[in-house]
Amino acid sequence: MIGHTLKELGVEKEVVPSHFSVKEAVFPFDRFPGVDPVLGPEMKSTGEVMGADDDMGVAYMKAQIAARQKIPMEGKIFVSVNDHDKRSIVDIAKQLAALGYKVISTSGTAEVLSKNGLQVEEVAKLGEGRPDVLDLIKNGEIKMVINTPAGKKTKLDEAKIRSGAIMHMIPIITTLSGARATVNGLEAVKKKGFTVKALQDYHSAK
């Protein structure tokens, strides 16, 4: 692109960085009350940020902070996933519990987690008793939401929960991969903490 070959620029072999860089998109969902923060094919990002660190988990958490996500270091985490994801969420929920978080779920997910030896606080679904999960969100009791879409049958209730979380500045995760990365990031930060280094220092490291 600049008229020179890599060899002419002194690049004789692939450069493998000694650190990790995680890019995160920034979404303006908090500016649109009532909007369901589930991504479709449309481009809704208003920018991108990056976190860098020698540890993958810490780099991921730095990217979340730069994207204005208030990832909690303690408190109650609401976990509710579709049937397809229930088996996979067990290890993630156990990791959260091991890190000191309290896991809250509605009946379906709570049953699966309980059968796998996890202590779960069950909360009512919307329209099935009070307080329900939206009440807990409004009261500030829930610090993060992990909710994977379950299809048309529960779409309206799920949308209310997700938009409620956004309105109250509660981080929400809608994929298993995102949940896994977040939990790994929390574990890394709790063990190692944060360090700050200039981008130039990362790239000058041999």
Describe the structure.
The chain has 206 residues and is α/β, with parallel strands linked by helices. The chain has one domain: Rossmann fold (3-Layer(aba) Sandwich), CATH 3.40.50. It contains seven helices and seven strands, in the order ββαβαβαβαβαβαα. Strands 5-4-3-6-7 form a five-stranded parallel beta sheet, sandwiched between helices. It has a two-stranded antiparallel sheet with strand order 1-2. Helix 1 crosses helix 6. It is elongated and about 70 Å long. It starts with 19 loop residues before the first strand and ends with a helix.
- What's the CATH topology label? Rossmann fold
Topology, number of strands: 7
List the total number of helices.
Answer: 7
Strand order of the largest sheet: 5-4-3-6-7
pLDDT averaged residue by residue: 86
Distance between the termini: 26 Å
CATH class: Alpha Beta
* Integer-rounded radius of gyration: 20 Å
Q: Kindly name the structural category.
A: alpha/beta
SSE sequence, one letter per element: EEHEHEHEHEHEHH
- In total, the number of domains comes to 1
For the record, what is the CATH homologous superfamily label?
Methylglyoxal synthase-like domain
Task: Identify low-pLDDT runs.
Answer: none
CATH architecture: 3-Layer(aba) Sandwich
Helix content: 25-40%
Structure, briefly:
The protein is built from seven helices and seven strands; from the N terminus they run ββαβαβαβαβαβαα.
SSE layout:
Layout: E1 20-26, E2 47-53, H1 56-66, E3 76-80, H2 86-98, E4 102-105, H3 107-115, E5 121-122, H4 133-138, E6 142-147, H5 155-167, E7 172-173, H6 176-192, H7 199-204
Parallel strand pairs: 3-4, 3-6, 4-5, 6-7
Antiparallel strand pairs: 1-2
